[in-house]
Amino acid sequence: MIKQEAPLSAIKDIGFSQALQDYSHRLFLKEAPVLYELRQHTKKMPEGHMQITPLQGQFLGFLMQILGPKKVLEIGTYTGYSSLVMALSLPKDGTVLTCDRNPEWTKIAKKYWALAGVETKIKLILGQALETQASLIKQGQTFDFILIDADKKNYRAYYENSLQLLKKGGVIAIDNVLWGGNIVQQPLQDLTAQLIDTFNQNVYCDERVEICLIPLGDGLSLIRKKD
Ligand SMILES: C[S@@+](CC[C@H](N)C(=O)[O-])C[C@H]1O[C@@H](n2cnc3c(N)ncnc32)[C@H](O)[C@@H]1O
């Protein structure tokens, strides 16, 4: 495990002061070396802020350990940190199916999955995520856990498709639900914040699910499909 001496990236967990962030990394973060390497690689990229934070990643890995899902679906691979952190904590026969439309970023993901020795546990589908979900629904596939972390304008559609793909009692995790804190701006001018706010309100009123909020990273909601 890597001991963090300095902040890993400019991306912070929302609401954490720098001192609290440093403390949390020092005493709560245990990041496998391969994840640390991938984070260092991604940090240099212009879109590096898109990666989940290390504490969010560790939380997802912890969830995999306690829930023990066999089939995980991810919408939004980027350079593969979240798929890798989940794959590393899955049961032996667990798999991650991850979708993205960007071949360049996912090439980096594949490199690090192989370095970690979990390349057989992760399958990438390149293309528009809505089309991938539609095809999975058509095939009658089901999943135990789904992470949604792609284009925000499609969150509602990803969520509805995910409810179809999810087994009863399964969990959906959704990133960026607090949108850098802009979600409480008055008036709400940021268009993406408006979209996410409407999405959050719809999920809040949805009787098919139970919800909770993990205020790490940019805000991660956990949504359980009722039995
Ligand atoms: C926020 S990043 C995902 C970060 C990733 N979970 C991680 O921890 O590194 C969002 C990703 O969604 C992908 N994406 C955005 N819109 C998409 C779409 N319509 N279909 C497929 N992938 C999409 C982008 O290419 C990008 O890689």
Taking all Cα atoms into account, the compactness measure Rg is: 17 Å
Q: Which stretches of 5+ consecutive residues score pLDDT under 50?
A: 3-10
Spell out the helices and strands N to C: HHHEHEHEHEHEHEE
Q: What compounds are bound to the protein?
A: S-adenosylmethionine
CATH class: Alpha Beta
Mean pLDDT: 94
CATH architectural label: 3-Layer(aba) Sandwich
User: If strands are numbered along the chain, what order do they take across the biggest sheet?
Assistant: 3-2-1-4-5-7-6
The shape, in one word, is globular
Q: How many individual helices?
A: 8
Beta-strand percent range = 15-25%
Structural class: alpha/beta
Q: How many structural domains does the protein architecture include?
A: 1
Total count of strands: 7
Tell me the major beta sheet: 7 strands, mixed
Q: Could you give me the name of the CATH homologous superfamily?
A: Vaccinia Virus protein VP39
CATH topology: Rossmann fold
Termini separation comes to 38 Å
Architecture overview:
By secondary structure, the chain is α/β, with parallel strands linked by helices. It has one domain (about 50-225): Rossmann fold. About 40% of the residues lie in helices and about 20% in strands. The protein contains eight helices and seven strands, in the order H-H-H-E-H-E-H-E-H-E-H-E-H-E-E. It has a seven-stranded mixed sheet with strand order 3-2-1-4-5-7-6, with helices on both faces. Strand 2, helix 5 and strand 3 form a beta-alpha-beta unit. Helix 3 packs parallel to helix 4 and helix 6 packs parallel to helix 7. The protein is globular, with a radius of gyration of 17 Å. The model is unreliable at about 5-10 (pLDDT under 50). S-adenosylmethionine binds near residues 101, 102, 128 and 129.
